[in-house]
Amino acid sequence: MAATVRLRMPGAELDLAGSQELARGLAVAGADAGVRVVVLEPDGADFCRGLATGFEPLDSGLDPAADLARLRVPVVAALRGQTASAGLELALAADIRVAAFDTVLALPDLESGRLPCWGGTQRLVRQAGPAVATRMLLSGERLDAEAALAAGIVHEVVEPDRLDQRVGELCGQLESLAPLALAYAKEAVREGAHLPMADALRLEADLNVLLQASADREEGLRAFLAKRSPTFTGE
User: Fold this and answer.
1) Is the pLDDT of residue 40 over 60?
2) What is the DSSP string of 186-224?
3) Inter-residue contact 207 to 188 (CB < 8 Å)
4) pLDDT tens digits, 27-39
5) How much of the chain, in percent, has pLDDT values that exceed 70?
6) 42 contacts: CB under 8 Å, gap ≥ 6
7) Domain that holds residue 136
8) Contact of 188 with 204, CB cutoff 8 Å
9) Does one domain contain both 186 and 115?
10) How far apart (Å, rounded) are the C-alpha atoms in residues 89 and 66?
11) Is the pLDDT of residue 151 over 70?
C-alpha cells in the first residue's frame, strides 16, 4: 500500500510543530512493513514556502529530509505552488518528484543570512549540477516547473488538476514491483553515487546476491514461467 504523509503548515511555512508531525509520520510509515511507497504532499496550494519565522531547525534536532532519505521504500513528492527553502530541501530528499505546472522552486536562504541546513546544498548539486546549484544558491534564481524538469530537479511535470492522479499512477506502478528489489535499487543508486566506480559495482553485485536468495526473487521466476502476475511479499 501507499502511505501519504502531509506537510501541515500554517501559511505554508514549516514550524516546529509541523516538523515534529512530519517526523512522526515518516517514522510510522517507515515502521509499517505493509507500506510499499510513501507520498509526500502538502495540505494547501503550496508545497512549502520555507521555514516559519522564529523556527530554528538546528536547535530543534530535527532533520526530516534525512528521515525521508533513510526510508527504504521509494518516496514520491507531489509538488505544487511555492516549493522553496526547506520545502525544496524536503523535495530533493524524495526519490521521484512530480511537479504541477504552477510549481516554482527556489533556495533563497542566503537572502535571510542563513544556509540550507537539511541537505539542500549537497542534494541540489547532485541533482542539477554545479552551475544550476550555484545560480539557485548564490543568486536566489527561481525555476518554474519546466526549467526544473530541464535541470533534472523534477522527473515529470503535469497539469495541476492531474497531479494527484499521476502520483497515484506512479504509486500503483511501484507497488506492483518486488519490495526488496525496489529497496536494493534505491540503495544502489543512493549509496553508489558517493563511491568510486569499483566500490559501487561491488555494492551492486552484493545486492544482487542478496536478492537472488529472497523469496520475492523465487516468486518472480515462478510467475514468469507460469505467465502470471507475481505476488511479492517483501521477503
Assistant:
1) yes
2) HHHHHHHTTS-HHHHHHHHHHHHHHHHTSHHHHHHHHHH
3) yes
4) 999 999 889 999 9
5) 90
6) 6, 7, 9, 12, 48, 78, 80, 81
7) 2-175
8) yes
9) no
10) 10
11) yes
Nearest 5°: the CA angle 126, 174, 150 is 35
Map grid coordinates 526488496 to a residue.
180
Per the domain annotation, does 233 fall within a domain?
A: no
Residue at grid coordinates 492531474: 162
Using an 8 Å Cβ cutoff, are 92 and 55 in contact?
A: no
Give me the chain's average pLDDT, please.
89
Q: For residues 111 and 137, is the Cβ–Cβ distance under 8 A?
A: no
| CATH code of residue 187 | 1.10.12.10
Assigned C-alpha cell, 50: 520555507
Look-up: residue for cell 523535495?
91
Q: Which residue has the cell 492522479?
A: 165
196 domain-assigned: yes
Report pLDDT digits (tens) over 106-138.
999 999 888 999 999 999 999 999 999 999 999
Q: Which amino acid, residue 103?
A: T
Is the same domain home to 86 and 167?
A: yes
